[in-house]
Fold this protein.
Amino acid sequence: MLRPSRLARPVARASARPALPPTTSRALLSQRASTRATQDFDLNKLNNKRRDYERNRTAFLAAGAIAGIMSFIYTAWKLKKALDVQSEKDKIAVKCDAPIPTEAFKTEAGEKRKVVLHDEEGREIVPTGYSVVPAFPRTMDLDLPGASTADGPVAASVSNNAGVEYTLVGLGMRTVTFIGIQVYLVGFYVATQDIERLQHYLVKKINPLATTLIPSEKDALRKALRDAAEGEQTWDSILREAGCRTAFRIVPVRDTDFHHLRDGFVRAIQARSGRDNAYGDEAFGAAMKEFKMLFNRGQVPKRKELLLSRDANGTLAVLYGEGGHKQQTGRSLMGTISEERLSRLLWLNYLAGDKVASEGARDNIIEGIMEFVERPVGTVATQIL
């Protein structure tokens, strides 16, 4: 038989433990749930976290942008230093290995004179100061379709079966971007038999009674040609009225292409034509389209020759090829543009205005002009011969 007393002890002990009140348990659960809900739905805390995230994100992006700009500037600076070092090495190499000097002008009796040398074949050349294209021909012959020659002893002397002779006035380097990347050398030529017309116009501009200019008058002309407004007006009148046949000889010093050259020419023309409503007609627009089509070609290797020629009527002729001094071998006519205004604006891009394609070329051309006007009108062509 079971003993009732032993079975009753565990029940008694269990019943003797104090039981938690139901209200206390519910309060604890309610407090935990309330705290969790408060943490999950604390909008202010979430907004603060979002604001901190956006602030940190903006700071990191700004720091990245600044670091990118600084690295770009530093890389450009290092590239410029490397190009300068290489340029100095090239100049030293030219001085040591070649007899061609690096200066296009020399000073004699206080006046600048163009340095003229003779190559191995006895032809006259003018040093450029750059090793890739060390010299330009002092004179060159151009045989253009439809070109007419004037009568007279000088005209007969400077025209032959090879074409009309042109004389170098000045040259310079075309550079782009703020670090001055060299693109091409450009030289300005005038038909030898037309130098008298150019002399006459420039001398009469300063002194209508003179046939040559004295040093003070040369300084006045030099100042006028360097002035943006007066220089552009002077050259614009010469190109319109003097009837001088001129040409620009362009020789790249690095590999380029026709599209790159065309874009530079077109931007220069549009920058000037956009300032005057007189260039908004259909004829000028058609000439621009035709001009662009001439340059739909491929690559232009360095040392190749591109010639832009302007005749007495303002017709533009574009030639490309080997070229050189007196020979025509390798030159081919790319096309012609009869619109006088287009060639005039393209010429002004090198000769005058607030911004020209090459400051060095303009200054060099002005110094070449000074050599012309210090001699009596009509004598330069005979001295070149």
